[in-house]
Amino acid sequence: MDEESKDEAEKIRDEETSLGESAESAEEIAKRIADKAVEEFEKTFDDNAEQGCKWYALNTYSGYEKRVKHNIEGRTRNYREDNFDPSEYIRDVEVPLEDVEQHTEKGKKNIEGRVRIPGYVLICINPDKDKRIFKFVQETEGVTSFAGVNQQPVALTKKEVMDMMTSYIRREAIKAAKLNSPDKVMEVKYKVGENVNIITDAFAGFHGVISEVYPEIQKLKVIISAFGRDTPIDLGFDQVQKIEEA
Questions:
Q1: Which pTM was predicted?
Q2: In this structure, which long-range contacts are made by residues 162-166, counting pairs with CB atoms below 8 Å and at least 24 apart in sequence?
Q3: Domain extents for the chain?
Q4: CATH of domain 3-187
Q5: Fewest C-beta in 10 Å: which of 35, 116, 187, 246?
């Protein structure tokens, strides 16, 4: 997420406030800021594409995504050899992040800035005639390869880039405006239809099927077969264990 987009987010927030913040909730303002940031990114994408710049995906070692971004940006700033300046060809390097609200049997946990696409870094490049820029990026510590075919980099489509970047752009714009994001990802250990074993309560030892999940209160509705009929019971996340399929 570049500084220009962050500045734009601040500008939109100021404009909304001057028009009367009380008339619009913080969540609505956050959404408007996020929508504007996505529009600006899409416009930048189109402008770059007209100039021959394309987005590529880099494969990296797991857990090295942020370090690879830092390494590429550092080398790009400092590399000046053989009449080759990589800053003329690299437009942007991004590691899409997301905020997660994780619900498990141990309770709720907020995870900020988790890598959204593990093992990948996105980079916008305007290839030079000799394609030396690809070699430069490939030689960066932590990069294993470009995503492509037969070891040749293949550019991402606009849809692919927007799908991977949109939620991250929204997140960054809202954070820059110092507002709470309404786009937090909710991650729940249990899913409707899964088989579970009840480990506490009067029905300990019974098996059942999850029919409803209530992450906000750490509860499940489980259907068990008891007394000759299906019986729904409410249980906490910590009162059941998933039955792993063989």
A1: 0.76
A2: 162/42, 162/45, 164/96, 164/116, 164/117, 164/122, 165/41, 165/94, 165/96, 165/122, 166/38, 166/41
A3: 3-187, 190-242
A4: 3.30.70.940
A5: 246
